[in-house]
Design goal:
- The protein is mainly α.
- It has 13 helices and no strands.
- Helix 2 (10-23) runs antiparallel to helix 3 (31-37) and helix 5 (54-62) runs antiparallel to helix 6.
- It starts with a helix and ends with a helix.
Length: 201
């Protein structure tokens, strides 16, 4: 499921999750991220089993319900929350509240220290940098895509990336993501993926 999700093959990722649930109804997967990038925000929230539930905050905002997104983000700021998640929620809250100075200060620290190789996590950092128009947004977005995060359809419509649109570098990043997705879709078809998980789209 994870390989399909990162490659932008969201429908096969979702079907893989459904197969897994049939085998083990108690299983927990990262399918919430697949639903999110597929634009199925209600299902993304319904399947958000992460602790804390980061996808739910993102989905609420993408649904246009910023007040609920803010309330949800604030609810996660509880004693004992691991530092990485506290940092994320404080940053997200500042961005949602358009507290540009605070969000930029946190973003400076995140961008300087970000070493995680996970391209999905890097994408979430990049989109938050982009919404506050931070100069490190494009480099980190490029790193996410070069690392194998090929969700080009989500790149094309995510409003948090709007500050980057229209630049040649951003357009190149989207083309790279689309090419990676198409290569993955071809490999998926050639390997007989459709017989197991249905069509790529």
């Amino acid at each position: 499921m994870q390989a399909c999700r990162y490659a932008g093959l969201q429908r096969p990722a979702i079907v893989a999750h459904e197969h897994a649930v049939r085998l083990d109804p108690q299983i927990r997967t990262a399918v919430a991220h697949a639903y999110l990038t597929a634009g199925e925000y209600q299902k993304a929230m319904a399947h958000d089993y992460d602790d804390p539930p980061v996808v739910t905050t993102v989905a609420l905002d993408l649904m246009g319900d910023r007040e609920r997104a803010l309330a949800h983000a604030r609810q996660q700021l509880v004693p004992g929350l691991p530092a990485v998640f506290r940092n994320f929620y404080e940053w997200t809250t500042a961005a949602l509240e358009r507290r540009r100075h605070d969000a930029t200060a946190i973003g400076d620290g995140v961008a300087a220290k970000w070493r995680l190789r996970d391209p999905c996590g890097t994408f979430y950092v990049a989109r938050t940098l982009a919404v506050i128009e931070h100069p490190d947004a494009l480099p980190l977005l490029k790193r996410a895509i070069e690392g194998g995060y090929y969700c080009h359809n989500f790149l094309a419509r995510d409003p948090w990336l709007d500050s980057l649109r229209g630049t040649s570098e951003f357009n190149g990043i989207v083309r790279h993501a689309e090419a990676g997705y198409r290569d993955a879709a071809t490999a998926y078809a050639e390997a007989g993926g459709q017989k197991l998980l249905g069509p790529a789209d």
